[in-house]
Amino acid sequence: MAQQLPAMFAQLKYVCFSWPNTQLLKRDPIARTWFKTHSTITTLPSALGGWPLILYEAVSTSTQGVPELFLSQQQCDSLINSLAELMGPSRARASWRDSAWLKREALIRSSAQAGGIQVRVFRSQAELEARFAELKDGDDWAATKTHWRELKRAQEVFLWLGSGATKRPALGEPKFVAVDIETWEQDHALVTEVGVASLRYLQSGKVVTEARHLVLQENSDKRNGRYCPDARDYFQLGQTVTLPRQRLARELHDTLFPSDDLAGPIILLLHDHRSDSKSLASLDVDLNKYERNPLLPPPDSPLYNPPNPSGAVPDPPPCFLLDTQRLFSGFSRRKRQSRLEDACRALGIVLPGNEPIAYHNSGNDAWVTLQVFLRLMQAPIGETADEVKPAGWTPGGR
């Protein structure tokens, strides 16, 4: 059987999703048109001669044991030659990444447990798309096991900290703080708005929540609206406050690094932390003081309540950072990055009175980020990462 198989293969998802985004071609209008008519899930079959379409199902070393679909080198060369008729052979070949090729022998070895390389004959678009979706579910499921574990640990810690204020006074009053930052669309180094939403468990047994919308005075003339929606004037949970940079930075610092005697562990929540982390740093917020391991320490860890010798100056409360986008990935079992709006829609989060949420107002976005977190903390996700498998997926596709 091995002698009848092609010598080289390329992933179908590379041909349809990565190749069109090659730096050399993705801004070229001629190339974009060609890819739409030759290299999508719906146009590829016609470009390769129509039905039936022969593809290959195998496991590569990059898919965590989950099968996926491959094209032969001959099929890929046919596509490259077709592109070369428009772009020229050297440019078309340069757009293809050499590392996309996988040798037959390596693919057979990595696919051994799944029965080796399987020849798949698809006779309709519906059949192809159904199998592609099944395999993608399996890939997402395997790739998000880590995110599931992070979510499971966060649920355990949330429950433990929530009861800690009344049961373990030495722990202090735990606080969960969501922050969202809006920047100017023409220069993302310029912060225009900061949203803060928090939940604190008091030792009295009460739970205190707050949502704030702060506008940076020095940049208040910088408005979005061309590339990013402008919702600055639509804070739906209170009054907007405009502050000079120094005062705003101080407010943030006092929120994220409280100095009161009852302050307990603080968990900072960001939805896709990368850009907001940079913006916080520009406002002199030192996130290096926050533990960034997405897997929180287990309940009862001394990290939540470090020992403090009698008479010593109290240490600042321990700080941890969580990304709600990663936690939502652990819930949805989809490895793609989900927008805040998508997470809210999936979790059924709405404003009081079912008023539509004005996203891209940092105060509203901070509040819904906190709500996403709270909803995820109560979501049933099973006891193990493999308790429920995606519908229609079986290892090896058999």
From TrEMBL:
<feature type="compositionally biased region" description="Pro residues">
    <location>
        <begin position="295"/>
        <end position="316"/>
    </location>
</feature>
<dbReference type="InterPro" id="IPR012337">
    <property type="entry name" value="RNaseH-like_sf"/>
</dbReference>
<feature type="domain" description="Gfd2/YDR514C-like C-terminal">
    <location>
        <begin position="176"/>
        <end position="375"/>
    </location>
</feature>
<dbReference type="GO" id="GO:0005634">
    <property type="term" value="C:nucleus"/>
</dbReference>
<dbReference type="InterPro" id="IPR040151">
    <property type="entry name" value="Gfd2/YDR514C-like"/>
</dbReference>
<dbReference type="InterPro" id="IPR048519">
    <property type="entry name" value="Gfd2/YDR514C-like_C"/>
</dbReference>
<dbReference type="InterPro" id="IPR036397">
    <property type="entry name" value="RNaseH_sf"/>
</dbReference>
<dbReference type="GO" id="GO:0003676">
    <property type="term" value="F:nucleic acid binding"/>
</dbReference>
<protein>
    <submittedName>
        <fullName>BY PROTMAP: gi|472587429|gb|EMS24928.1| ribonuclease H-like domain containing protein [Rhodosporidium toruloides NP11] gi|647401361|emb|CDR47541.1| RHTO0S14e05050g1_1 [Rhodosporidium toruloides]</fullName>
    </submittedName>
</protein>
<dbReference type="Pfam" id="PF21762">
    <property type="entry name" value="DEDDh_C"/>
</dbReference>
<feature type="region of interest" description="Disordered">
    <location>
        <begin position="291"/>
        <end position="316"/>
    </location>
</feature>
